[in-house]
């Protein structure tokens, strides 16, 4: 099982699901990327962290490195009421976590 040795958190903000291009590790020093979605930055970050735990990365290394309350990720950073008004709206808040593995 691989261990997480470094990470970077990217708060993309709100975007429409059909237009969000995703985020990867091309041309970076990172080995793996996950992107979480939610109605606010905190929920999207928690979704991304949950994806890390479901991957083949050692959970102890995730516990030690990934912060519970990272700087710049706040629940008050959320979708506007107009973006959530439609029941079929596809606007989400996106947060990615890039990780370097050993």
What's a concise summary of this model?
The chain is of the alpha+beta class and 102 residues long. 24% of the residues lie in helices and 30% in strands.
Determine Rg (CA atoms, Å). 14 Å
Mean pLDDT: 93
How much beta, percentage-wise?
25-35%
Alpha carbon gap, first and last residue: 9 Å
* Total strands: 3
Put simply, the count of helices is: 3
Domains (count): 1
Spatial strand arrangement across the major sheet: 1-3-2
Give a topology summary.
Layout: E1 4-16, E2 32-38, H1 41-53, H2 59-65, H3 81-84, E3 91-101
Explain what the structure shows.
The chain has 102 residues and is of the alpha+beta class. The chain has one domain. The protein has three helices and three strands, in the order E-E-H-H-H-E. A three-stranded antiparallel sheet has the order 1-3-2. The longest helix has 13 residues, at 41-53. The radius of gyration is 14 Å and the shape is elongated. 18% of the residues are buried. The mean pLDDT is 93.
Annotation keywords:
24% helix, 3 helices, 102 residues, elongated, single chain, alpha+beta, three-stranded antiparallel β-sheet
């Amino acid at each position: 099982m691989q261990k997480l040795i470094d990470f970077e958190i990217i708060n993309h903000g709100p975007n429409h699901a059909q237009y969000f291009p995703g985020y990867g590790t091309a041309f970076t020093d990172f080995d793996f990327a996950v992107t979480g979605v939610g109605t606010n930055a905190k929920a999207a970050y928690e979704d991304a962290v949950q994806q890390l735990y479901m991957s083949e990365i050692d959970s102890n290394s995730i516990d030690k490195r990934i912060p519970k309350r990272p700087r710049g990720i706040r629940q008050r950073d959320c979708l506007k009421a107009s973006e959530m008004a439609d029941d079929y709206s596809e606007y989400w808040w996106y947060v990615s976590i890039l990780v370097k593995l050993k």
